[in-house]
Amino acid sequence: MEYKRILLKLSGEALSGNDKYGINASVLEAFCKEILSLSTMGVQVGIVVGGGNIFRGIQGLKKGISRTKGDSMGMLATTINALAIESMISSLGGKAKVLTSTFMEPYAERYSSDRAVQALENGFIVIFSGGTGNPFFTTDSAAALRGVEIKADILLKGTRVDGVYDCDPEKNPNAKKFENISFKEVIERNLKVMDLTAFALCSENNLPIMVFDMTKDGNLKKIINGEKIGTLVK
Question: Does pTM top 0.70 for this prediction?
Answer without folding.
Answer: yes
